[in-house]
Design goal:
Largest sheet: 5 strands, parallel
CATH topology of the largest domain: Rossmann fold
Shape: elongated
Radius of gyration: 27 Å
Distance between the termini: 23 Å
Strand content: 5-15%
Strand order of the largest sheet: 2-1-3-4-5
Number of domains: 4
Length: 460
């Protein structure tokens, strides 16, 4: 929350004017006539945002910014100048300013800028809390979430983790299914035992059985020594079977037996071995359709589907994108040795609007690429690939690629967007543009309404 704002400007009339405007908005306002006074004010009082003039006697805005950032690392700094040019605005943001305002500006401009800064700060703090809460259980693979769908998924995960029941994690490729599986294991009583992962589609069919269940020495040509198998390696821990739909039907029978009987028999052995393994399976396919096609056993499906966790695609959790961007920036700053600390508003807007066919994995790769191509401390749109900056034209009324070309549109997804947008407009009309009241009418959170307004291009 932004509660206290520091105004730094050598123009007394402007300081008083801004103080009146912001006090009327409910902010606690401090004023300083220059850089030295601003630093003293910061040392004496907690500050949540800074409005700073660029050109002042003594310490100017550019020189003051890094000193404020050292004292208040995460506080947004908004620069102001009567000599506004596009180059100056770009330079201010490149040096770490949250935003730039050219004087003279309207009160509505300052209100909007502060509201945007507050929303960004709330997301950043929520991300920090989530990463702190999850760090104990999942180490460096933090789950970043602010969207309703992901919050509900994490709540279900926490309720599921303590039990041995099998879990089926579903979701599109790149959505983070293995991260969810690791979190289940790490929050369970098995956290100190092995977590063993295998991609069922990455191992040749004739080797997969041996890889899972092991084999005796001499069991087949080339078996020069005994092999334990992944079930044995995961004993007392968790076995993650990624892309379970790729497993051959004949092997599915043996997997079902292993889960039900809690024992395995390595190839070439005469005796079975008892195991204590929690199985977590994942797939990007529709298993019900695979059953209908005869490619997946129904009895195995029901055994795996005791608890089902569906990871939403990134295009349906746009609220998470700014948090994920900050998370990847932090990770790659260390691994790449780059000083990139932020993404420009224009670049972030492109990232939020992009449909992300490759989900979180694609976003991670795109941020890594952009950081490599960035020389300064802020990623600009020029560092993003053309696939993101020039995507196919899409909109609420536009048809998806591959849609029927006749006049009738049968897409439920597009119909839902049109319906939601209309309902939001009606709610805003009913409440005179009051977003808080409109959110209550729509029975969604205020944050969810803000993102839908941006996603659908609705202005109050």
């Amino acid at each position: 929350m932004i509660d206290r704002i520091l105004i730094v400007d050598d123009d007394e009339a402007l300081r008083e004017s801004l103080q009146l405007i912001l006090s009327a908005e409910g902010y606690d306002v401090l004023c300083a006539e220059g850089g030295e006074a601003a630093l003293r004010a910061i040392e004496d009082s907690a500050v949540d945002a800074v409005l700073c003039d660029l050109r002042m006697p003594g310490i100017d805005g550019f020189d003051l910014m890094p000193q404020i950032a050292r004292l208040l690392p995460d506080v947004p700094i908004i620069l102001m100048s009567a000599h506004g040019t596009q180059d100056l605005a770009i330079e201010a943001i490149r040096r770490g300013a949250y935003d730039y305002l050219a004087k003279p500006f309207q009160p509505s401009e300052i209100r909007l800028t502060l509201r945007k800064a507050e929303e960004r700060e709330q997301l950043r703090r929520r991300n920090a809390l989530l990463e702190r809460d999850m760090s104990r259980s999942i180490g460096d693979r933090a789950i970043v979430a602010a969207s309703d769908g992901m919050i509900a998924l994490l709540e279900m995960l926490e309720r599921t983790a303590p039990y041995k029941s099998t879990v089926l994690v579903t979701g599109e490729s790149g959505s983070g299914k293995e991260v969810i599986a690791r979190a289940i294991h790490a929050q369970s009583p098995r956290r100190d035992a092995p977590f063993v992962a295998v991609n069922c589609g990455a191992i040749p069919e004739n080797l997969l059985e041996s890889e899972l269940f092991g084999h005796a020495k001499g069991a087949f040509t080339g078996a020069n020594r005994a092999h334990r198998g992944l079930f044995a390696e995961a004993n007392n821990g968790s076995l993650f079977l990624d892309e379970i739909a790729e497993m051959p039907v004949a092997l599915q029978v043996k997997l079902l037996r292993a889960i039900q009987e809690e024992e395995i028999r390595p190839i070439g052995e005469n005796k079975s071995q008892s195991i204590d393994v929690r199985v977590i399976a994942a797939t990007s396919r529709d298993l019900e359709a695979e059953i209908e096609a005869g490619r997946f056993r129904e009895d195995l499906f029901y055994r795996l589907n005791v608890v089902r966790l569906e990871v939403p695609p990134l295009r349906e959790r746009k609220q998470d994108i700014p948090l994920l961007v900050d998370h990847f920036l932090s990770r790659f700053r260390e691994s790449l040795g780059k000083a990139v600390r932020a993404v420009s508003e224009e670049a972030l807007d492109i990232l939020v609007r992009y449909p992300w066919p490759g989900n979180v994995r694609e976003l991670e790769n795109m941020i890594e690429r952009a950081m490599i191509l960035t020389d300064g401390d802020r990623i600009e749109t020029s560092a993003l690939p053309t696939s993101a900056t020039q995507p196919p034209a899409r909109g609420i009324s536009a048809k998806d690629d591959g849609a029927e070309s006749d006049d009738e549109d049968f897409s439920l997804k597009r119909a839902r967007k049109v319906f939601e947008a209309e309902l939001i407009r009606r709610a805003l009309g009913r409440t005179g543009g009051n977003r808080t009241h409109a959110a209550r009418l729509l029975q969604i959170s205020h944050r969810a309404l803000l993102y839908k307004l941006k996603d659908y291009g609705i202005r109050d």
